[in-house]
Please model this.
Amino acid sequence: MAAHHAPTMAVPTDAQLIQAQADLWRHSLCYFTPMALRCAVQLGIPTAIHRLGGTASLSDLVTALSLPPSKTPYLGRIMRLLVTSGVLASHEAGIYSLVPLSYLLVDGVFIDGEASQVAIVLAATSRHYLEAAMGLADWFKKDVAHPLPAPFEDVHGATILEESMALLDPEAHEVIHEAVAAHDHMGIGTILRECHDLFKGLESLTDCCGGDGTTARAIVQAFPHIKIHVLDLPKVIEKAPPSDAVNYVAGDLFHSIPAAQAVMLKDSMATNDKSEIGY
Ligand SMILES: C[S@@+](CC[C@H](N)C(=O)[O-])C[C@H]1O[C@@H](n2cnc3c(N)ncnc32)[C@H](O)[C@@H]1O
Model:
């Protein structure tokens, strides 16, 4: 006779069941939000709204983007999703405008240098990333010896930002590099303006995982007396633009960190286990 186990939880109430079903639909379909964002970037919607003076109707956009008029109602659905997800604003029915997020997706936008974050959207919503995510269950089931391949490596046989990715898909490799650069190039201007006092009295600094030194060069420009070491992996330092203002150190933070009064870790996901960061 089968053993009877005590129920692990009480049967949900009708109200809870209705809410649970609604939540299930929401969680199962919420991937449409990044897909709508990708669609907006690929169509050039933020740039079109910007060029139209900051606000646009659906028909303005259909004309500006040279879309078939028959697609107007469908564009309206995408625009509604973009508004509800905070990518665009609509203060008047049928009229759309940019918000700070979509401003970052306008071609050629400059804030402390090139600020467009289009590459991040294109990389993060690329088929390579999505296929890696879709392979998660298979990845969990595989019992393989260390070092564990990250889900991305497991599905594609290539590693993000490495030569293997360039061989697999040169175009996607380029987009991922552009995404990392777009990410790295933004933010330090705001930090220098808003957190200026942080750097006062500092004589030396190590930017740990400092990438190509963009952040360090911006700090030296604002505080020329600070001596800055930029530590990153050899493959990154090799490609860093030459600069007399900073001292590049090729290495691994798990082995040694150049001595300085302060160590900075900005947007760093360094780990000695690649699978932990999804690379
Ligand atoms: C997202 S980037 C951030 C770059 C930079 N901090 C910035 O904000 O512009 C992360 C950096 O960490 C570096 N990194 C990863 N593991 C590292 C390690 N073990 N030692 C040194 N650098 C490492 C990568 O090469 C990459 O350049």
